[in-house]
Amino acid sequence: MIEQLIRTRFTDLTGVRHPVVQTGMGWVSGPRLVSGTANAGGLGILASATMTLAELEQAIVEVKSRTDQPFGVNLRADAADAPDRCRLLIDHGVKVASFALAPKPELIATLKEHGIVVMPSIGAAKHAVKVASWGADAVMVQGGEGGGHTGPVPTTLLLPTVLDAVDIPVVAAGGFFDGRGLAAALSYGAAGVGMGTRFLLTRDSAVPDAVKQLYLERGLTDTVVTAKVDGMPHRMLRTDLVDELEGSSALRRLRPTVSRTLEFKRTSGMSWLGLAKDGRAMKRAQGRTLGQMALAANTPMMLKAGLVDGDTSAGVLASGQVVGVIDDLPTCEELIDRVVTRAADELRRAASYVV
């Protein structure tokens, strides 16, 4: 385990040793991966959207039993029980609250009052300006190369527009997997990088080994962005199931969508009223249609089938384009050590060009 080689506004803000974030991936970012990242000096983020409130508390307690280092929890800002989940973070002294959507100003204020760093994920400069004006401490910006829900603008163009728009620390995500990427992001002016697929493909990740091997066999052109899974652009590995979904009609997808929605209701412990409230929140926050909201409820079970159960015939596998340049399964410590060491070397080399 290496000592701190690179200090940024982000490391100062969060108390982590290295400016590397393991992003909050549903069904993937559990206690083992998060604590592995934290113990290696990065910021591990626990994914809570697929957990009940009780499961989230249990997961936080487990992470704290595995590490004494700072870590974060990713929350759905539009969830009906978001205030209750934030209370768990406060009660257990979690260091960072990250959000997939912009949290309300009053929620940001409550978290900050208790010393919790608030870091929403954003996809446009205007969104960064909005959350910064509400008091967010940092933002994570993901370019189109990233896995899961993503936008059309690549990181190399999106990142500088966000850096020009706000003066809070910016973490760059989408397309990062090694020390050269961290050095490049820091040269742009970012305060750190976020990596998802790269951390999914570590020995500390609980994704089944057979599924990891499937990822390792893929090339740079083996991902696809589709809206057929949950109605929103979603980057994932191209599989037979994804190809089938891409070519299917809405009517043909209806029956399995209803079935998986019922399974999500059972697994999450949510009532029909709770699902309806979350649906209305999605509609307000994201402008989704009724059909898209039905698909959104269906998505967690498709991701679980692939990433937890290892059933790629019934599940989907979220992935960034970096899957095409990853060929090994290090531990979190091995990964972070080599990323930071290489970044420091690259920054020294670049500095030598200055006269």
UniProtKB/TrEMBL annotation:
Keywords: Flavoprotein, FMN, Monooxygenase, Oxidoreductase. CDD domains: NPD_like. InterPro entries: Aldolase_TIM, NMO. GO terms for molecular function: nitronate monooxygenase activity. It holds the Pfam family NMO. This is Nitronate monooxygenase.
